[in-house]
Design goal:
Length: about 400
């Protein structure tokens, strides 16, 4: 694990999202990190020192002096840390950090820190969208800090929009990526990798569509891993709720198969590796209703026409690209995957079977087999992040031949 043995200083400010910090501390500890927590005075309205100290196995500090008069040195805290994570970071704490308003232990520690600083903002919808917040986040990035953007969802006010603190798993992943990025061999440096991800939605009328259960998790994991290895990554995604943590990835959002095809071939001539992990709808309605179809009849007949085969087209137009396809099968899995490898002119194909528990759509895990024209490799059930490593390791081994 990337954070194993690292010293993580978590600074908690006074927002309702502070409850999530318990899970973040637990996750860092489980991965072998040492965690020290400091909190602002207002944070004590939302979390207790006892719960945070129990999880972190260290005393939690909120003031410069303990009740017995012992000085809590902000300088020592700052110098101790390998990274500082401010989560949640309220609008008030963000403003104090950026403009040097040093009136509590958290800000004094932050201003003494020489380590990387990660900021996970959390505030209500309009506060997050306010020009002053946007400006402060831009300034934070200009200072070299790493922003873990707020996510969309229901907020404490009842409004729905961007402002929720990123989930602990996302913050953990960003910190892990930071350490990985500074240690991992840049084995794909100088390569351009194009990845398709997620489903496509084919419109029936303005409110309905034909689609599938693909979440995009596998494609997004591949994109993150390729970026860590130094590749220039172009990610073309159908509708997906997945969030990228690496800002170097060039993300293009599409909806339909035809849109995905057009976007792929904007870049195809310039790429070195193409990985088609998207679950593209095979068929689309022949005619799309301009108005919502009313529920008048007992039956509704929709004529479907075949969508363009994006992967087959990539294979037909392949010149120098190393092309990877995916096959999700329910029967005759290996035979069907090998047939697809041949028919679509692929260099390798990744097979997952819906018969394997934990594999396929929506899961955080996957179990794969990889085929080339001459090789077969089987892998155990793993997280999709680890599966992405296996796939890219195999791609790299083929490129070296």
């Amino acid at each position: 694990m990337s954070v194993s043995g690292k010293k993580i200083l978590i600074a908690v400010s006074g927002g309702i999202a502070a409850y999530k910090v318990h899970f973040l501390i637990r996750d860092f500890i489980k991965q072998g990190a040492e965690v020290q927590v400091i909190i602002t005075p207002d944070a004590e309205h939302f979390v207790t020192k006892l719960s945070l100290a129990t999880l972190s196995k260290k005393p939690v500090y909120s003031d410069f002096y303990d009740v017995n008069g012992t000085w809590n040195s902000h300088v020592e805290l700052a110098l101790w840390a390998d990274v500082m994570v401010v989560a949640p970071c309220t609008a008030n704490t963000l403003s104090k950090m950026i403009h040097g308003m040093c009136d509590n232990l958290v800000i004094a520690t932050y201003m003494s820190a020489k380590c990387p600083v990660f900021i996970a903002p959390a505030m209500d919808l309009d506060m997050y969208a306010h020009p002053s917040t946007k400006r402060n986040l831009e300034l934070a990035e200009s200072y070299g800090h790493i922003i873990v953007p707020a996510e969309n969802g229901e907020l404490a006010s009842g409004l729905i929009g961007q402002g929720r603190m990123a989930e602990p798993a996302t913050i953990l992943k960003v910190v892990n990526n930071y350490f990985s990025d500074h240690t991992i061999e840049k084995s794909l440096q100088g390569r351009t990798v194009l990845i398709t991800a997620g489903p496509t939605y084919e419109a029936i009328d303005p409110v309905r569509f034909i689609g599938n259960h693909s979440s995009g998790k596998m494609g997004f994991s591949l994109a993150e891993e390729a970026a860590k290895r130094g590749a220039k990554v172009i990610l073309i995604s159908g509708p997906s709720s997945q969030v990228l943590t690496d800002k170097r990835i060039e993300l293009h959002k599409v909806t339909s198969a035809k849109e995905m095809l057009a976007k792929v071939f904007e870049f195809y001539d310039r790429i070195d590796i193409g990985i088609a992990s998207a679950a593209v709808a095979d068929y689309a309605p022949k005619d799309v209703a301009k108005e919502k179809i009313k529920k008048n009849d007992e039956n509704l007949t929709i004529e479907l026409v075949k969508n363009p085969d994006i992967l087959k087209t990539m294979g037909e137009k392949k010149t120098h690209q190393f092309l990877v396809g995916f096959a999700l099968e329910t029967q005759n899995e290996e035979e069907n995957a090998k047939g697809k490898l041949e028919k679509k002119n692929l260099d390798m194909i990744v097979l997952n079977s819906l018969r394997d528990e934990g594999a396929g759509f929506k899961n955080d895990t996957n179990k794969i087999k990889i085929f080339t024209k001459t090789e077969k490799r089987e892998f155990d059930l793993k997280s999709k992040d680890d599966v992405a490593k296996d796939i890219l390791n195999f791609v790299e081994s083929q490129l070296l031949k």
